[in-house]
Amino acid sequence: MKKLVYCLVAMCCVLSFVGCDKEFENKANIIRLSYENLTHRFFNGDDVAFYYECQFATDVKFEIMVNNSSTVLHTETASITPGEGILTFNLETGGYEGQALLCLTYHQMSSHGKVVSTHWYEVTITTRGSWYYENEAVNELLESCKDFDAETLAETIEGEYERYSYLKYNDDWSKIIEPYRVIGYDYVEGLAYEKYNFNADGTGWHSVNPAEPDMETMTYDFNWSYDAESDQLTLSGEYNHKWRVTGCNDNYIVLDETTTNGDNLRTILGRSLL
């Protein structure tokens, strides 16, 4: 009789164990970046939202890492229970700007023991007012202009150009601090539309088309010269100006100046397509 009781107890234990195992089988947790964040572009201090659909409770470890590096900028942990919802983390990086990875580590599957998974999302994190993307776009253009031949620039400058970018830089020219026009797009209201024409004989003209519709375009003649040793481009006549040529290719001329007020201004002329 005792043997029968022991057998029944043992069978109940086995069935209970099997029942528990089946209870946890095929359960899964899904956590993904919210649709509203699919641009993968964030500012420091932003909240990033993740949608979750969970069938069992789990802790979620959130990390911000520098892309292609082991540097961890921020880490925190949250707990979620079964159900659906939105999990929110704040992007605090201490002012980091650039490519980063948002890492989520959590228990994703419950079969055969809880399976831990890590998911990565590649994003760009910047600071409001830093003009990060504008700097990236202009720097790419500057890279294509840096290896110019100063000795032959005067022979290749001939043509009509539009003011493609107009920018104010910091003291060491490493960052844009105030964009007026970037890659053909105005960032301030009332900025005039300007053109420059350089003739092979050293003459040219500069036109200013005001933003106000009731004002006429003004055109000024000038003579131009370029000194290869100092990289100085000089315009004189009805229009007078001096720049340092810091870049040039078949389509663009990069012209820098430091004003009497100490402002570092960069003008990028783009060759007219017409």
Give a written overview of the molecule.
- With 274 residues, the protein is mostly beta strands.
- It has 2 domains: 27-126, Sandwich (Immunoglobulin-like), CATH 2.60.40; 146-271, Lipocalin (Beta Barrel).
- Helices cover 15% and strands 50% of the residues.
- The protein has helices spanning 2-24, 132-145, 153-156, and strands at 29-33, 41-43, 47-54, 58-66, 72-80, 83-90, 98-109, 115-126, 159-169, 176-182, 185-186, 193-198, 203-209, 218-227, 232-237, 241-248, 252-258, 264-271.
- An 8-stranded antiparallel β-barrel has the order 9-12-13-14-15-16-17-18. The protein has a 5-stranded mixed β-sheet with strand order 2-8-7-4-5, with no helix packed on it. A 3-stranded antiparallel β-sheet has the order 1-3-6, with no helix packed on it.
- A hairpin with a 5-residue loop joins strand 17 (252-258) and strand 18 (264-271).
- It is elongated and about 85 Å long.
- Mean pLDDT is 89; it is low at 1-24.
Brief sketch in words of this structure:
The chain is mainly beta. The chain has 3 helices and 18 strands.
CATH class of the largest domain: Mainly Beta
Report the C-alpha radius of gyration, rounded. Answer: 31 Å
Distance between the termini: 104 Å
Q: Biggest sheet, in brief?
A: 8 strands, antiparallel, barrel
The CATH topology of the largest domain turns out to be Lipocalin
